[in-house]
Write a structure and sequence with these properties.
Elements (H helix, E strand, L loop, with lengths): L3 E6 L6 H4 L5 E3 L2 E4 L2 E3 L7 H10 L5 E3 L3 H11 L5 E6 L7 H11 L3 E6 L4 H17 L4 H13 L1 E7 L3 H5 L5 H10 L1 E8 L2 E9 L2 H14 L4 E9 L2 H12 L9 E3 L2 H7 L3 E8 L1
Parallel strand pairs: 1-2, 1-6, 6-7, 11-12
Antiparallel strand pairs: 3-4, 3-5, 8-9, 8-13, 9-10, 11-13
Keywords: Lipid-binding
InterPro entries: DegV, DegV_C, DegV_domain_contain
Organism: Vagococcus martis
Length: 280
Amino acid sequence: MTKIKIVTDSSCIIPEERRKEVEIYTISLSIMIDGVIYADQNELDPFDFMTMMSNSKTLPKTSQPPIGEFVELYDKLGEDGSEIISIHLTEKLSGTVNTAKQAAQLSQSSVTVIDSDYIDQGLGFQVYQAAKMAKEQKYSVSEIVEAVEYVKEHTQLYIGVATLENLVKGGRIGKLVGAVSGFLNMKLLMQLKDGELEVVSKGRGNKTFIKWAKELESKLSNMSIEYLGMSEASGVEICEEMKTIFKQALPNLTLPIVHTTPLVATHTGKGAFAVMFYTD
């Protein structure tokens, strides 16, 4: 069977213990902060970035990879006759997936592009599933795409933000809500659904997040959870607290907490976290 290679972008997060099991090719989105462009996120220490972002007078700007980089990567990966599946963050947050689709038309390789409708580990769930199946070299592109779609349909992703400043500046949420949050120390819990952010709950202080976590824990007990991961942007303390809560329902799962990428942190702001899971 023809070899299949998996491509994603730098918004994708897969915990190290899973990532080292599979082969994945990553194309990087660039970030500009304080007038300096970082073409590869590996040039930025994610923890240093949080400090840089806090000290910056303007919101960092992210840019999708140039179409030429996609074409070059696709052509190189397909030189040996391999087919390619390219899975990317939701088009609602970036034009990356559309650039990938255009590049697929220009490439000499056979490329299938998928909009994950997610970001961070939510995207990572789909990429890992595809890479795991590709590694076995017994599945066709259509079979892997079908499995990826299944993971997508059974994924839930929730984002908690401590401040709405970055979301407001980035045009991701209404400015009125942002203004109210700034005065009332309001915390916002949202769900990323079909590529759109929908408000789930809001309130003052972290008790809003803990209350939601306890409500989710009661639901998780009745669900067949395949994997649950958490990501944070200087929000590790609240994640650790929620992990203790979720462990009551999921004692046999690892529940990893990872620091998110500069790209995601730019959208969510300091103190944010995300909880993502999918069912089998």
